[in-house]
Amino acid sequence: xxxxxxxxxxxxxxxxxxxxxxxxxxxxxxxxxxxxxxxxxxxxxxxxxxxxxxxxxxxxxxxxxxxxxxxxxxxxxxxxxxxxxxxxxxxxxxxxxxxxxxxxxxxxxxxxxxxxxxxxxxxxxxxxxxxxxxxxxxxxxxxxxxxxxxxxxxxxxxxxxxxxxxxxxxxxxxxxxxxxxxxxxxxxxxxxxxxxxxxxxxxxxxxxxxxxxxxxxxxxxxxxxxxxxxxxxxxxxxxxxxxxxxxxxxxxxxxxxxxxxxxxxxxxxxxxxxxxxxxxxxxxxxxxxxxxxxxxxxxxxxxxxxxxxxxxxxxxxxxxxxxxxxxxxxxxxxxxxxxxxxxxxxxxxxxxxxxxxxxxxxxxxxxxxxxxxxxxxxxxxxxxxxxxxx
Length: 390
Known about the structure:
This protein is of the alpha+beta class. 48% of the residues lie in helices and 13% in strands.
């Protein structure tokens, strides 16, 4: 979304798009996470949310580069009832911004969403987002009316806007999916339109960062007619399908569990696929562990066991087993310690970390024996583990 290029504020700087934690949805790992409009509106400082157009801009005669601009309010999306009457703006009012903001294109009004507070008896307009049409105001009004506790209803609402012609709206709706948890995204998938998702998945212009999510969702609500597309994309990954491999594989497992898990195990056991593809497959395992750990347990153990056998990415498999508290493969994990080709520090530490967390007697015996030979290593790994992880 495009932010106004200068600060719209009387009392503070423009709040730009904020960096956020890593995406909640594992399948959206490639995406640069940004603040959504709904999150912006959740801040206490968003006491007024307005939609309108920038009007006449006037330069100051006293200070070069300074000036003011009329903002014509066309919709009031929020107004704090505690504000003094003079700060309660209505449709048709004109707000004078203390900055010179000429139109980007002469003769074309600049439509914007504005978030502001009142500080020290003055308007503090701290963020402006340029939008393409009044539809952005309708979209945000609908988003603000959603119950944040009803994630499924929320995602169904945002799904309707993923292909909206206003790019600000479409990107914001997509970011709501990015920020939803794996479970929330998966649970909403079966209620979505397979026809829309199918069209987006087949469209060569769909960016890779979205293709993975769309493919998984298609696997949740699609039918037999979609299997061929998944099989072709997984058999010949290239370009955007390679970048979105984790989402495509996740969708195929969702659509055809038996065939999908068989493919994942084979890919990880043989180790012939490129490293990025195998890492994508491990992200798929991570997604199912986060979403359906109990239902996927048998399949996850088979796939992670295949990684242990192949060896190259064994430390990643050991970490996934530890984090998921799956101790079934303890003997196989401990047998890797010191094995030729798997004796790098990162691999040794992963195995020691697993053994320290594992409650089985065999792991405790392993740690006791190792402590006699490499006490410093065991102590160092112990220090990296939080009490809750042990």
